[in-house]
Amino acid sequence: MDEAWAVAGEGRARRGGPLLGDSVYAPDEERLDSWVSSPTDDRLRSFVEFYAGQSEAERRVLRDRLTCEDYYPLLT
Amino acid sequence: MKAIRDRQPESAIAGVLALTAVDADCVDERDLASAAGLVWFALDRIGANASAIFVDASARACSKTRAILERMGPHPESPFWFGVRPVDTDDGVVFLHDYQARYSPTIDLSPLILRVRDLLEDDGYSTHVCVASDLSDYWVRCGDAVQTAKAIAGLSGTAHVSGYPPKIGKSRLETLLIFISEAASEVDAATIASGVTPRDKEGFCGVGFAERDLCLVVIARELPTSPPSLRASAVFTRFEPRLRDLLHAAAA
Fold first, then answer.
1. Mutation choice for A interface testing from B6, B26, B117 by most A CBs within 10 A
2. Measured between CA atoms, how close is A69 to chain B, in angstroms?
3. Residue among B10, B20, B69 with most chain A CBs within 10 A, to mutate
């Protein structure tokens, strides 16, 4: 799990807080009617690749740690 | 969008995997389905095997999320179903909100409404763009009501942009609405343009102009608290020449 915290939030996420820490998109980065690149993409991709490479049990633990604040960046 | 622009599936595959980390019980399922629909569209658009990628990725999800993603797989749902329409621009694909009203103009109104959006944003406005929207007769109440109703009913398509100016001091934000519609004829376009309510007791001002079978309607709120730069007359003065130029170029 420590690795997950490190990967997801580069050390910024707090235990008990959102796992993905400050990996949120700025309003302009969420727009669908124009394109801007976002550094959040790279942070989320690191987490996603880590998540995808885990065992089923480890993925379940990670999912249980995600909060609603984490879900919407993942949906974006 | 990144996958389509790069013509590489990696970003879209990461997008599917990101969805597998989401517990469908904790979010609005429509948000999950919308995101999945857009990722599916991106994979399909660049020629990747979206179905196989979705099935492979969904094995990593919890049971409810997996069921949603697998449902997407063999039965891809168009992004249109989720209220957006893909539009190709010189700068790559973008998605515009789609109100799913009648939309079969002979020229695509999307590039034109995006130029109008850019014009507003260059002026500091925040915007929201929609295609396949409606031009309500609420804004077009001058002139012959029967002819106006006939002209509006005959529109083959409408796109509009809402503009929200930056807050100035304590002044409240006011909305600027700009509609572009294709009418059934030049006469109908002119009927609509000339019927736009110039000033209304409910606090809006409008102006309309037509070019061939295209008409453009601008509606601006004008409240006593508006600073001079946001008064409708100032807005019209500032934008009208450039809007006329855009409409003229589109109709040419």
1. B26
2. 10
3. B20
> Least CB-CB distance to A74: which of B19, B114, B129?
B19
Q: Do B96 and A32 touch (CB under 8 A)?
A: yes
Tokens for B62?
């919890």
- One-character DSSP codes across A32-50: SSS----HHHHHHHHHHHH
Distance set, CA B52 to CA B11, B40, B58, B73, B88 (Å): 16, 11, 10, 8, 26
What integer pLDDT is reported at residue B133 of this predicted model? 96
Q: How crowded is residue B118: how many other Cβ atoms within 10 Å of its Cβ?
A: 14
3-state SS assignment for residue B171: coil
Q: What is the pTM of this model?
A: 0.83
- Tens digits of pLDDT across chain A (76 residues): 555 555 554 444 444 455 676 667 888 888 888 888 888 888 888 889 999 999 999 999 888 888 888 888 888 8
Q: How distant is the Cα of B85 from the closest Cα of chain A, in angstroms?
A: 10
